[in-house]
Amino acid sequence: MSFGDDQRFIQVDTLSIPKRYMSHEFNPSTIMKTSMQRGKITRISMMKSFDCYGSSCLNGTVKLWSYWKLPTLKGSNERWVFSIFLVFRDHESIPKFHFCEYQNMLLTTRVSREAYGLSVSTPKRSIGLSGHYDHLVDITEFGTRTCEKYFVTLMTGKDFRILDGSNGRIIREWFDADQQNHENSYSAMFFDSLSH
Question: What's the pTM?
Answer without folding.
Answer: 0.73
